[in-house]
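Sat 14:20. Reprocessing the chain from the morning session after the first attempt stalled halfway. Input below, unchanged.
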Amino acid sequence: MKELLYWSVGLVAKLHNYIMRLNDRYEYRFSDKELHFLVIGVLGMGLVFIIYPVFKWLARTHHEMVITWIYVFTMILVITFAIEIGQKITHTGNMEFTDIMFGIVGFLLMFAIFSVIRMFYHLIRNAVKKMIESE
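Finished this time. Tokens:
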């Protein structure tokens, strides 16, 4: 996971440099804030066009829990990174990648336990429903 994070940061840095070279080469003279406005706006809209059909399909096929998991997992990533960055800024702890990993693994384990309990609940509920219908 650590390698994936470093690879992602490197990719973003290369993309940033490429966009800056385009900006300089074609003399657009966009400021850093204007480039952030454009790039994040385009990236966000691209993600909307990709994610919306996927979520619509998941909802249509009654996979609301998958949508919930994706949303919560995304929020957990943001929150864990924010906590670590906050610790670095306020000097209230050490900013460590392993803290982020342990937090994410904690969520994954607790969600797995929840999923097993939910599975048994649905199995029992469906069995009872079939028994009532067969009478």
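Helices lie at 2-25, 32-60, 64-90, 97-134.
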